[in-house]
Design a protein that fits this description.
This is YHS domain-containing protein. There is one protein chain. The chain is α+β, with helices and mostly antiparallel strands. 40% of the residues lie in helices and 18% in strands. The chain has one domain. Helix 6 crosses helix 7. The chain starts with a helix and ends with a helix.
Length: 144
């Protein structure tokens, strides 16, 4: 898919607020954010390949993936910090499931369920445009 203006707006929705486990601080359920791109699947990271970035602990399958992420978290981290973009488009911050995902416009998106993933995949531009409108306010609310 081409890098549309809506996808470009999503690309600026970096990980100011990341979905983490409240007890461990581990981001996106410990899944390796780079593996979605390199392996085309959700892969559980390993504690031996952890890195702290943006107030979260990220886990990776190997040292190479950790290096890629640390060099370019803006590319590999899930958009909207791992919050479901369909929820964000509706003005609600709902944590995505790291096993329900899609790469759109060279960006990773996580979804709360398959229905939201399917809806987003059918019309990503519409959801990204709406999400871009709601995300700044949601970031403020998440920071409170």
């Amino acid at each position: 898919m081409a890098f549309t203006p809506a996808v470009a707006a999503a690309a600026s929705a970096t990980t100011e607020r990341v979905v983490v486990n409240r007890h461990t601080g581990v981001a996106i359920g410990g899944f390796d954010p780079v593996a979605y791109f390199t392996d085309k699947e959700a892969r559980q990271g390993k504690a031996e390949f952890e890195a702290d970035k943006n107030g979260a602990v990220w886990r990776f399958c190997n040292a190479g993936n950790r290096s890629y992420f640390l060099a370019r978290p803006d590319i590999y981290a899930p958009q909207y910090g791992g919050y479901d973009p369909v929820g964000v488009a509706r003005g609600v911050a709902v944590a995505g499931n790291a096993q329900i995902w899609l790469i759109e416009g060279q960006r990773l998106f996580l979804f709360v369920d398959q229905d939201n993933r399917d809806a987003f995949a059918a019309d990503p531009g519409r959801y990204l445009q709406r999400a871009a409108q709601h995300w700044p306010k949601l970031l403020e609310q998440l920071a409170e």
